[in-house]
Amino acid sequence: MEDFAVEYLRNESVYRGRYRILRKLGEGGSSVVYMAVDMKSARPVTVKVIKEHVFDGKAAAQIVEEETRVLRFADHPGIPSVVAEYDDAFVLDYVPGNSLEKVLKKKGRFDEKEVVTFGFELLDMLGHLHGLKRPVVYRDLKPANIMLRPDGHLSLIDFGAARFMEQGALTDTLNLGTEGFAAPEQYGNLGQTDPRTDIYCFGRTMLLLLGGKCSPELMEVIDKCIKPDREDRYESCAEIEVALRKYPGRRTRKRALKVAQLLAASAAASAVISFAAAHYDAALSYAAEDAQVRVPAVKERMGNAGIRIKMILKERYGVDVDDLLAPEGEADR
Q1: How far apart are alpha carbons 296 and 286 in whole angstroms?
Q2: CA–CA separation, 245 vs 222, rounded Å?
Q3: ∠ CA 32-122-208 to the nearest 5 degrees?
Q4: What's the pTM?
Q5: pLDDT digits (tens, 9 = 90+) for 159-182
Q6: Domain range holding 224?
Q7: End residue of a domain, out of 42, 69, 93
Q8: Residue 273 burial (CB < 10 Å; 0-12/13-18/19+)?
């Protein structure tokens, strides 16, 4: 069999008499990936050619069989479908767009809202894999393996590290993953990987997409995902989804509490001001005959009372009344 991974497929060459190679998409330690056109259907496809004897001497045909079996079993709109398989390669539906890794390099970081939106899509795909009749652990979630399609949605690519969970297994057959994203148990001697392994990779991915900067509330969710001991992590993707739906509420409640405190202080200040105004008017009426003498004294007393009221509100409620009277937005500066 010709070693296509070593010789490489040239642009415009035809693989297996059916797939016209357009360009090389990328190369990893175990395979070379090309974009091609299926001349039978005229649709774009991805051709993944396996390098021989990469995984403990496994033949390329065995690697093809293992990866395509997971892909065929997955059956999810965010996961590419298998078009065909051969003894040295397999063909998938082409996923248009760019990897989040490429987008991240250009953009620097994504904002929190974008990352949370991505998070829900990733959790849907991972949760689907974990919930299959034969649960699948993806094991290699990272920005390079996540495609951002032109329609704004995500797809998972490269299932080379994915495996079926085996009931009763004490360890993985092969320890695969990417340093910086892989969970501690992926390095061996900590039992077989499980859905919590993907949860760790998910947390690390979210953190990188955020550039390490996010609200304390979201960081709490991420921190629980990336606990070194898997027993301390979320048990499932569904749990993380619940936490992500609640976290904006926690932020809103904290903001609402602050606003409520300000409104209460404002009401108190209004009452004080109304009280002072009423007495101020009474003083003016009472001192009508001698206003020029009495009014300045009354104003001074009211001013001193106002200062004292501000001090009490500051000491007891931690609220600066001046902030209440400042134009919107200035109080938080």
Answers
A1: 14
A2: 13
A3: 75
A4: 0.72
A5: 988 999 877 665 555 556 788 899
A6: 98-235
A7: 93
A8: middle
